[in-house]
Amino acid sequence: MSLDPDDARWSTVAGSVLPYGRQTIDEGDVDAVSRVLRGDWLTTGPAVDQFEAGIAGCAGVSHPAVAVSSGTAALHTAYAALKIGHGDEVVTTPLTFLATATCAIWQGATVRFADVSEDTGNLDPDAVAATVTGRTKVVAGVDYGGHPIDAPALCKVAHDAGAMLLEDAAHSIGGSLNGTPVGALADVTTFSFFPTKNLTTAEGGAVASNDAELLTRARAFKGIGMVRDSRLMRSKDVGAWYYEMPELGLNYRLPDVLAALGANQLKRLQSFKARRQAIADRYHAGFGGLDVLRLPTHRQGADPMWHLFPLRIQDGRRRQLFEYLRENGVGAQVNYVPVYWQPYFADLGYRRGMCPVAESYYEQEISLPMFPSLADSDIDRVIDLIRIFVEG
Ligand SMILES: *Cc1c(COP(=O)(O)O)cnc(C)c1O
């Protein structure tokens, strides 16, 4: 395995460094990709169909998912399919990757941030209820770290306000809440298949929903807005070459080469999940009795897919712990800088202090190594390092 030293997932410390996340590729994955490369379709062929059916099965929805070229593309496609535009508001969490918010802005919407719950770091339904207005069209929650959002409560707040619930499930494919899979909990769900996520296509994403019309709009959007189904066309019986563009779109297609990797990875999703749970259990056992540490919560009814292991250190020494881990070869990460702290938002007038729970979550948080091929001996080394740091 060769590591690109410029890759942001790796510490810049020389020598062997434990990353916070990494892909799990086996020879079956290599064979699946090779078969596509030797075949007739490099993009938008049978592997995409197979992957879209596989994602739908995993997400518990009745229509094929719409595969796209990244999790960011999935969010943009979902907002477009929800018909978000100028004058509309999207309420979302600041404790997320930038794209959850920025893709709504690309569609012309205004973003409003609501605070998170202190235990899960997920959007707090009460905070959302206090933030929605008559212009709110979408509430966008994120399954932070892999723990599903409180979708029933958020659906109610969103629907009561005349809005839809979008679930950014970049962290949580394979998880569930009260027996309902992530993918069937919200009006529309987006996934990311970036290498550090729970399942990879190198770059990739998908949009899942039970709403057939929304999916039709999503499918057109990721294909430059083109439709070839005559039922969707204004002019009839022009000829078999004919296509129309009722709405704008972009090229967000996922190639067959990458879909084949994803379809093969999907077969191992449950084993990835079991290993991630075992790693979380080992961290929990190893950090027992250390009151200064706050470990990720697991709410009743939730079956998380632990994409991250977000540790919180409550004595104000997050930066010292982070640097100490990096000096000792542990490539920890911080997820996330509150989105509205970014200069882009600051310049628009968004002010620090708006979501105090998310801000204090950020100020205490460190994501520890969490990926299926992480060895027990490495987990124990991370635990020992942190115990020594905390107990002094
Ligand atoms: C990774 C991620 C995205 C974006 O996915 P990409 O595939 O990197 O474009 C969006 N939202 C969240 C919460 C993510 O973690």
Key structural traits:
Aspartate Aminotransferase, domain 1; 2 domains; disordered N terminus; binds pyridoxal-5'-phosphate; Aspartate Aminotransferase, domain 2; alpha/beta; 392 residues; 3-stranded antiparallel β-sheet
Descriptive report:
The protein has 392 residues and is α/β, with parallel strands linked by helices. The chain has two domains: 27-266, Type I PLP-dependent aspartate aminotransferase-like (Major domain) (Aspartate Aminotransferase, domain 2, 3-Layer(aba) Sandwich), CATH 3.40.640; 269-391, Aspartate Aminotransferase, domain 1 (Alpha-Beta Complex). Helices cover 36% and strands 12% of the residues. It is built from 13 helices and 13 strands. It has a seven-stranded mixed beta sheet. Strands 7-6-11 form a three-stranded antiparallel beta sheet, with no helix packed on it. A three-stranded antiparallel beta sheet has the order 10-12-13. Helix 4 links the parallel strand 2 (89-92) and strand 3 (110-113). Helix 1 packs antiparallel against helix 8, helix 3 (71-81) crosses helix 4 (99-106) and helix 9 runs parallel beside helix 13. It is globular. It binds pyridoxal-5'-phosphate (PLP).
